[in-house]
Amino acid sequence: MALDWWRIWPLTVNLMCMAATTSTPQPRLHIKPGTTWSDAFARCHELAPEAFDADRLRNLWGGEWRRTGDPLHSHSPVDGSPIAGPPMLGQDEAQEAIRAALDDHKEWRDVALAERKARVRAAVDAMDAHRELLALLLVWEIGKPWRLALTDVDRALDGVRWYLDEIDGMIAGRSPLPGPVSNIASWNYPMSVLMHAMLVQMLAGNGTIAKTPTDGGAACLTLASALARREGLPVSLVSGSGSRLSSALVRAPEIGCLAFVGGRSAGGQVAAALVDTGKRHFLEQEGLNAWGIWDFSQWDTLAAHLRKGFEYGKQRCTAYPRYVVQRQLFDRFLAMYLPVVSGVRFGHPLAVADDADPLPELDYGPVITADKATELAAKIDEAITKGGVPLYRGDIADGRFIPGQDTSAYVPPVAILHPPASSALRHAEPFGPVDTIVVVDSEAELLAAMNASNGALVASLACDDESYARRLAGELQAFKVGVNKPRSRGDRDEPFGGRGASWKGAFVGGAHLARAVTVGPDPDERLVGNFPSYSLYPEV
């Protein structure tokens, strides 16, 4: 094989990184006072005792917070310590909650838009008043560093404020759906994706019901839902396993629309369950987002984008875990990339050396669970054992930790050259701080490698000739394609969707989200999105 000489690179890379850094002893760290899980939960219990018992969370439907369901024995990914888990319901109670959500929906759809706007605005203001508590819950439940947790809350609230100003024109002449919107979302963005969507759905005249993600975010969503319900918003929040609640939350005749965010396996099961129902739906699923590099020289600019790309350990739907690099540029790519990956900062998001210190500025904390960290380690070992070349492997000792803390959910950054076709990392998104790199010689190889996952949400091309890059972009199976910059989900009026297997149903974002959860006067209306009988894409 022409690449055999790359087998020496792990040693070379480690030596380069050792030479580039000076070892200095870290100060002894501890959790910043006032930021412990017990501090956060006590504040929630005091603020919203109807939703937070002293020892557990409650479920919400029919306007009542109910001490029902068996709480999971959950642990924080931050340090393995116990936290309040979601109270898991059975199918009968979920069906009861769906019927109550329909009753809420029937009342709410007749409320005048001006009144709906006033109540949603009041709920947003209440959440804003407690934004730091919501963010602290996100740190403990899903491991987001403090700055990113605050950003998640702020994006949700600022986004809904934009809809409050724009909603009149978006839904003029349109009506709410025949039933409430059922929301099933992954754990990584409880506020800026799930709660944001629910508030817009209610603003458009619909009742809502959401299933709390099992892996994290239950307490944050419980507090946000308590503040929303106090303002009279028709929100229901339930917990339970997807397999148990699927028939109620996906197929129940009362449901007017299903909004799903998650992986392809679960998404495929949901899509199969929807086939014969005719329900309105939008299903966001994963894809292997790729960044192609061809005839390029702006390395400092690319380095800044790649460093930012490690935020939250690449645990987001628009992360870029795959780089496809022209062979003639690989040496220059590597010279740019290695300092970036070796400079990534990870560790305990709430650890400080002195009580007065600000919370640390990290790129990421833990992955969502210790099991996920173990899964990633197995995939990394598989890719290398089968022939992939480890270009960089960080060390857990490089993290910023409290002495003696549990670090089982932390994964140092890893980069693998040419993961073999038989390995999981070749075609699937790792959803963690793991990059894979593929070297190519032709335009055809570049496109094939970037389209490896049968559809993606985003892609980018780094190329000095932007007109050439835009031509290549037309051959990529990604909804949004950036040229010399990354693409993201977007805020406010920016549409969002996916091509191929990465998205099913209506697209969202701006007026597209408002139309997806309302009914227009034309019975033959064709929404923008991917449907069994057609695909219709907006300008991006």
Number of helices, where a helix is a run of at least 4 consecutive DSSP H or I residues: 17
Question: Could you give a short account of the major beta sheet?
Answer: 8 strands, mixed
CATH architecture of the largest domain: 3-Layer(aba) Sandwich
Number of domains: 2
**Annotated CATH homologous superfamily of the largest domain:** Aldehyde Dehydrogenase, Chain A, domain 1
Beta percentage is: 15-25%
* Spatial separation of the terminal alpha carbons: 42 Å
Mean of residue pLDDT? 93
Report the structural category: alpha/beta
CATH fold naming of the largest domain: Aldehyde Dehydrogenase, Chain A, domain 1
Strand line-up of the largest beta sheet: 9-8-7-10-11-20-22-23
Radius of gyration: 23 Å
Unreliable parts? 1-23
- Beta strands, count: 23
* Helix fraction bin: 25-40%
Principal-axis shape equals globular
CATH hierarchy class name of the largest domain: Alpha Beta
Domain Aldehyde dehydrogenase: 71-513
Protein name: NAD-dependent aldehyde dehydrogenase
InterPro entries: Ald_DH/histidinol_DH, Ald_DH_C, Ald_DH_N, Aldehyde_DH_dom
Organism: Frankia torreyi
